[in-house]
Amino acid sequence: MEQQTETTSFGMWLFLLTEIMFFGGLFTAYLIYRNWYYPAFVAGSHTLNIFEGSLNTLVLITSSFTMAMGVWCAETKRHKGLVWSLIATLILGLGFLGIKADEYHEKYVLHHIPGSTFSPQGFIHPSAEAIKEGEKPLAPDMAAKTEVYFSLYFAMTGMHALHMIIGIALLCGMLAKAVRGGYMDGHIAFVENFGLYWHFVDIVWIFLFPLLYLISRHQ
Amino acid sequence: MSTILSLPDQTTARVPKRNYLTNENGLLSWLLTGDHKRIAILYLISITFFFFIGGSLAGLIRLELLTPQSDLMASDTYNKVFTMHGVVMVFLFLVPSVPATLGNFLIPIMVGAKDLAFPKINLLSWYLYMAAGVMTLTAMITGGVDTGWTFTTPMSTHFSNTNVVTTGLGVFIAGFSSIFTGLNFIVTIHKMRAPGMTWFKLPLFVWSNYAASILMVLGTPVLAITLVLVVLERTIGIGVFDPTKGGDPILFQHLFWFYSHPAVYIMILPGMGVISEVISTFSRKRVFGYTAVAFSSVAIAVFGFFVWAHHMFIMGVSNYAVLVFSLLTMLVAVPTAIKIFNWAFTLYKGSITFETPMLYAFGFMGLLTIGGLTGVFLGASGTDIHLTETYFIVAHFHFVMVGGMLMAFLSGVHFWWPKMTGRMYPEKLSQLAAVVTFIGFNFTFFPQFLLGMLGMPRRYAAYPPEFQVLNVFSTAGATILGVGYLLPMIYLIWSLKYGAVAGNNPWQATGLEWQIQSPPLTENFTTIPVVTQDVYDYEWLERQKEHEVTHVG
Hints:
The structure holds two protein chains of two kinds. By secondary structure, chain A is mainly α. Chain A has a single domain, classed as Up-down Bundle (Four Helix Bundle (Hemerythrin (Met), subunit A)). Chain A is built from nine helices and no strands. Chain A has helices spanning about 1-35, 40-45, 50-75, 80-110, 120-125, 130, 140-145, 145-180, 190-215. Chain B has a single domain (about 25-550), classed as Cytochrome C Oxidase, Chain A (Up-down Bundle). In chain B, about 65% of the residues lie in helices and about 0% in strands. Chain B is globular. The chains are: A mainly alpha, B mainly alpha. The interface of A and B includes residues 11, 32, 40, 151 and 154 of A.
């Protein structure tokens, strides 16, 4: 029994290692292009919605806390506690995706989605408001490179969101079982491993948030 | 000729009635099985199917190259044919070949466990493999793909109007199938070894599959994300690899080869494991320098991650990078040479016999050495500039992958066939097949080294007429090679019903898998074995036999 739990958790850690490599490719691309097109990355970063980004960070960290509570409740066989923790995690997870969707919509309005509709005009001719805040216009060739920034922004946050969606689907299944009184017999490997997965997805965001939103803010 | 083969008395011997094949009946009992041995058989059938598809495509390539003009097919058809040949052979045959079939079957038994750590994930990996296979076949039937198996950008993202997305997603899914296999192996080897089975009593087959699993688990996700980016670039037009938007096609090369170079070792390492077992058994000796061979597998896995840019010497990486990667590439030759020399020393003063698995193993050693040494030509940056993108490179990797891996695969299939099915293959016929394969192989691929040295580029349907003689040699050799592959297909199926009953241990081998009945029970062992003997301990085996004789007799 204990041997089995140990085995599944070892398997889960290995799986998370593959996930690190999966995101690793994207982070590599980010580092290279950030070095090449630094002004474009700074300008692109300035257009992100820092309020919604920070709020999402808070939402996600809280959901990690509720998930950790869920694992603890499962370990100590608290049925109600487990169900409510999972519900809270679910709501926070959906909240994160909702806020993310709003951010994506903002990008759509600004023509910042890479592809045929992309337009760097806002970086060549910043609005009067932006100039007042210290935004400098970019030369057209550097402004065009913001498309690389937004390609990476969407690839990275999109992959992250996909992991959230998969997580939420698993969470729903787990919740359904918990409501019917599951996980109270000591077989909680699934809850524990899901917890690991959820924290991992959280940690990816903890890296994405500063890289995409924060580190060029003061420029 | 002397032989170590010892079969039970054929007049009374029967294949045990209760075994993993007869335990349950019906199609569903196969499709929903969690038994690692049945999943291995499912894999064996599927990869053989894809091998023959890939092989037929190779046949078409060789037929086209019989004449200098592009007359059998148009150039763009030829592009699709060699692309599909590469995709099918690499992702649907070579990567899963030994691990998913022999590894799946043997690793739990070799470590003394009842199954892999995650039987359901094991079955899932087969379904993912099949999904990938179906997607790739669909892409092939509905128009093919012409980017080469490397999906090189911007060809794959902008200029090709073939089924890149379907094929790319197929390979993506195949990747997850191999991640799950690798993950299962690593956890099993760490956590499920029988009492007394320490790391240094593990057969070398387990060690080499362990090393390959590390590569699968760490490398494949990088390929996955790269293919996702290619698909996104092709469908919605993001700009990560697109130079017109500021992206860099070389970055694609870096990410792709970060997986695809280690993938070469994913393909060859399990084969090296097979050879270690076979050489030891047929020279009746413990593998010379067991620890060195075990660690050389791990060393190959580690070095394998730091040499990827040698695929890109002419693609615009800096001269300093070329220097470093060239040097690191030379380093991989060291652990590989450790293996070759240790196998040679195992043979030294051993009581060698020449059964079929051993013939294939000898083929492997020779061909892998040639393949490996020509790899050093290509790793040296100066000669690489002359030789890369010519038939020299085609010959090089076919010597490693076909001459090496396929020989090892066939060696392993013959060696463990009695264990998997309970029956022997016909020995004389299979020795003939091994020799035919070896001759056919050399006829096919040795001329390609010469063609490459003379400057014939790869991936063209037409070529200057002065290259025709060597191409005719190559095509003729491919025909012989084809016969060499069809023969085992036929007699192995024949042997399922008419082969001699093998008994538990026809080769007098020492591994745990040979101490149980053939074919094994679903649960492998009736009681969990306690391992007291050393690995490859032939004296222990002798004592066991004497013990049995005195007690039963």
